[in-house]
Specification:
This protein is of the alpha+beta class. It is 37% helix and 26% strand. The chain has 3 domains: 273 residues, Bira Bifunctional Protein, Domain 2 (BirA Bifunctional Protein, domain 2); 77 residues, Herpes Virus-1; 102 residues, Rossmann fold. The chain has 18 helices and 23 strands. A 7-stranded mixed beta sheet has the order 3-9-10-16-13-12-11. Strands 20-19-21-22-23 form a 5-stranded mixed beta sheet, sandwiched between helices. A 3-stranded antiparallel beta sheet has the order 5-4-6. The radius of gyration is 26 Å and the shape is globular. The two termini are 42 Å apart.
């Protein structure tokens, strides 16, 4: 039983997934020809398709299924006072500790959480809760010396050196700063946004008034965020440049818990609807709430390195809008004339906010880990292993592959004709190299749901053989039915119906 979270090198399953992601064009180390840049990755030709499909599905799930949720795309650079109001300038810190022997730096709170997870895995749940609670108390009191003593008392050692020769615990601000201005001495310090939520809050009234929105309503956004993570690891799970998909839902004060529970359940159903096994998901309620929240939980997925947060659901109260209102001296209030219809006096109020925040990169990794499948198959008298990506067809980078059986006898021309008839509606691949079996295998490895074989019978009766990725079963059908057959499988409709 592990005592620390395993690194990619130590975790065989994650190592295989990372290798697969690179070999088949999903994820590349950034600047690899220059030996890369730690915790920064590029999405390859298959990865960008999968990530775009994930983002598009999330976007439509928010804005298309909910008439009271609209979209926004705020700038990465924002006025520095935005981050003063949000608390990031003064308190967006991680407690860091260094091992004097290995010279490695770690997040002190993460090391303690890993120790608590070890106790929980060993069945000592009460000890795990007590350790987590004590850490929360020390961090809330800003007792960094107490945090160090807790690490020493729990005999937490550096996984590299194996020693407990620790430095003092220090706070490290995670925001990237830069200068804006044409002349150095006139430049002002601004920040790369560490989260996308603040762009929504400062545009609250712009969206509400121009869209004539009535509370309750939500604003959704997908965008890049940046955090100077000292401890960046576990592949794309924790990166310095990442993408967030957030929705801030503005509600009447006093109704926030009702909406908190609604979005909690809706978001879990969404993860299940895209094919994530139910037993791989769990809710984790926050023991220690952030200063702005009155309720918070994480939706966690069981990665190869353990259960970790994929999405956060938070009841943020009126903290953000109130902070921006006070510092900007601009009213960020909503006039609720529906109150009069309910027999209550008209009035302005600062709405409360329910937040759903999911990392696109973590979601990508969750989907990849869920889809990565190794199985034993029997063919005749022999048994062999098979690896494929069991992606939901709606998310798969390529929806179908057109494969002429040979490169002659008019089969390529017929296959090209079929490809051209489908390419306007689906992302397709045409391939004629190697045996049909090898081509099936290549498509399995990138998660293509359907392979369409064009053979000599196709020239006679306009039928093709369609192979299913998951079952490997093959069916014969007319070319005229291909579009509806593929569309039914890859459409978002089946997912939306589960959320209705």
């Amino acid at each position: 039983m592990a005592t620390q979270e395993k690194t990619p090198v130590e975790n065989a399953q994650l190592k295989d997934i990372i290798s697969h992601a690179k070999e088949y064009g999903f994820i590349f180390p950034s600047s690899e020809i220059y030996d890369g840049l730690q915790a920064v990755y590029d999405y390859g030709q298959m990865g960008v398709e999968l990530k775009n499909n994930i983002k598009n599905l999330w976007w439509k799930s928010m804005t298309q299924l909910n008439q009271n949720v609209v979209g926004l795309d705020a700038a990465i650079f924002m006025h520095p006072l935005v981050w003063k109001a949000s608390g990031h300038v003064d308190s967006f810190n991680d407690p860091m500790i260094d091992n004097k022997d290995s010279k490695k730096r770690y997040r002190a709170d993460v090391m303690i959480e890993e120790k608590a997870a070890q106790y929980e895995n060993e069945g000592d749940v009460e000890r795990a809760k007590a350790l987590t609670a004590e850490m929360g108390r020390l961090l809330e009191a800003e007792d960094l010396n107490g945090v160090r003593e807790l690490i020493i008392r729990e005999d937490i050692k550096c996984p590299v050196s194996g020693t407990a020769n620790w430095t003092e615990v220090r706070q490290f601000n995670l925001m990237f700063s830069t200068q804006v201005g044409s002349v150095a001495e006139d430049a002002s310090t601004i920040y790369l946004r560490p989260e996308t939520a603040q762009g929504i809050f400062v545009n609250f009234l712009n969206v509400q008034k121009t869209g004539r929105m009535k509370v309750p309503f939500g604003i959704a956004q997908i965008g890049k965020a940046f955090r100077n993570e000292i401890v960046a690891r576990q592949f794309i799970f924790r990166m310095r440049e990442f993408e967030q998909m957030e929705m801030q839902f503005f509600v009447r004060p006093g109704t926030e818990m009702e909406w908190y529970e609604k979005w909690r359940d809706t978001r879990r159903k969404w993860h299940e609807a895209i094919g994530v096994p139910t037993d791989k998901l769990r809710f984790h309620d926050h023991d220690k709430l952030a200063h702005y929240a009155n309720a918070a939980l994480d939706i966690e997925f069981e990665f190869p390195f353990g259960f970790k947060e994929v999405e956060g659901i938070h009841s943020r109260t009126d903290f953000d809008l109130t902070q921006h209102q006070e510092l900007s001296r601009k009213k960020l209030q909503y006039f609720d004339n529906d109150l009069n219809e309910e027999g209550k006096p008209y009035g302005n109020y600062v709405p409360y906010v329910i937040e759903t925040s999911v990392g696109a990169d973590r979601l990508f990794l969750m989907v990849l880990c869920s889809a990565y499948t190794e199985e034993e198959i029997t063919e005749g008298d022999s048994t062999k292993s098979r690896t494929f990506l069991k992606l939901h067809p709606a998310l798969a980078p390529v929806k179908a592959a057109i494969l002429p059986l040979t490169k002659k006898d008019g089969l390529p021309e017929k296959a090209t004709e079929i490809f051209d008839s489908l390419k306007y509606d689906f992302n397709m691949i045409y391939e004629e190299r190697d045996s049909i079996g090898k081509r099936y295998t290549r498509q399995d490895l990138i998660g293509t749901p359907f392979c369409i074989a064009v053979d000599h019978q196709t020239l006679e009766d306009n039928t093709v053989t369609v192979r299913d990725r998951d079952t490997r079963e093959q069916v014969r059908m007319p070319i005229s039915e291909l579009h509806s057959y593929i569309n039914k499988a890859v459409s978002y409709r089946s997912i939306f119906e589960q959320l209705a």
